[in-house]
Design a protein that fits this description.
alpha/beta, 7-stranded mixed β-sheet, 9 helices, globular, binds zinc ion
């Protein structure tokens, strides 16, 4: 009985095999990586200090944001200072391999954690000026003294910091947000030199123009180096769709102001664009095209959303209907 059963089984298996051999070929299972584009985007955060042009360097991939080194005659300026002392120390050490000139000034492009909380490390052993918009101190205080526990937890959630190892691919605007709990994890050099609309100054022989440019935050500024045609747009431009609203729950972002700020940048016709997230771009035409697309995308989403509201559609319906048109290729 057992042998019979075995024979039946063998015949059945062979039968299945032979049937399979002559049946139409099934398409081979395709190993689709649903996150392929996001994986490819990780290359944007390859950790290195990039020389953009003479005297302009940017540290990419050390933390969520970039830090930018401007080298002058007898000193340097650091634009954005990382999110923690640890990441700031790593950047500072690598900048010191380029030049040992003293740090004469820091610039905060805005108040967000990932741009300011390594500033004490860069200020150590000196007394650099700290440039920022006049409202930046207010926003720093609001986060640090009023809503920090809530916003910290939400940010960690938004940036995937609680995911198990391997669960996070990248954070879109950076590789990761460093965890910053513990003693001496953060430091802050308070703004010393603030302004309202425009500040034109010179530090260590570097001519710098700071423009208030509300967008991702209300206190956002961009830095323009007129002699080198270098633009540092802060977080009003990065190689990711603009975070018109942060899912962690932050204050309203005025998207029309954001579009206007991009127009201000376009008018300057920069030849180098060094954002505070993702890698720098070179070439006047290329930069103009990309800034224009970015600006138009923001305006389009705003206009079509308002159109949907006027048609009495709800948020879920508007989300389904607003689709960006094809953009030019660069
Ligand atoms: Zn940022």
């Amino acid at each position: 009985m057992k042998k019979f059963t075995l024979a039946i089984l063998i015949v059945a298996v062979l039968g299945v095999l032979s049937t399979q051999d002559f049946s139409p070929k099934q398409p081979a299972p395709v190993n689709v990586d649903a996150n392929a584009e996001l994986h490819a985007h990780t290359a944007e955060f390859h950790k290195e200090v990039i020389k953009v042009t003479e005297g302009v360097y940017v540290a990419v991939g050390y933390g969520l944001a970039n830090s930018i080194l401007l080298e002058g005659d007898d000193g340097v300026v650091i634009v954005d200072t990382m999110e923690s002392n640890e990441t700031a120390r790593a950047v500072k050490a690598d900048f010191a391999k380029i030049t040992q000139k003293p740090i004469k000034a820091l610039v905060f492009t805005h108040n967000h954690t990932d741009h300011i909380f390594g500033s004490g490390v860069f200020a150590e052993g000196g007394s650099p000026k700290v440039f920022a918009h006049k409202s930046t101190n207010y926003y720093i205080d609001r986060v640090v003294n009023v809503i920090r526990p809530a916003i910290y937890t939400r940010a960690m959630r938004q940036f995937g910091s609680y995911l198990p190892p391997g669960g996070r691919i990248n954070d879109g605007i950076g590789p990761f947000l460093a965890k910053v709990d513990g003693e001496n994890a953060l430091s802050l050099a308070r703004p010393t030199d603030t302004f309202d609309k425009v500040l034109k100054t010179e530090v260590a022989g570097i001519k710098m123009e700071l423009y208030h440019a509300p967008g991702e935050t209300a206190d956002q500024l961009f830095v323009w180096l007129p002699e080198k045609k270098v633009l540092l747009p802060g977080d009003n431009f990065y190689k990711a769709f603009p975070n018109l609203y942060a899912i962690r729950g932050t204050a309203y972002r005025d998207v029309l102001e954001w579009a206007k700020s991009l127009d201000m940048m376009r008018e300057l016709e920069p030849e180098f664009l060094v954002p505070s997230h993702t890698r720098p771009l070179v070439g006047k035409e290329k930069i103009l095209g990309i800034l224009t697309d970015y600006r138009d995308a923001i305006q389009f989403v705003h206009d079509q959303t308002v159109r949907g509201i006027n048609m009495d559609l709800g948020p879920d319906e508007i989300v389904e209907r607003v689709k960006l048109p094809r953009l030019r290729t660069h």
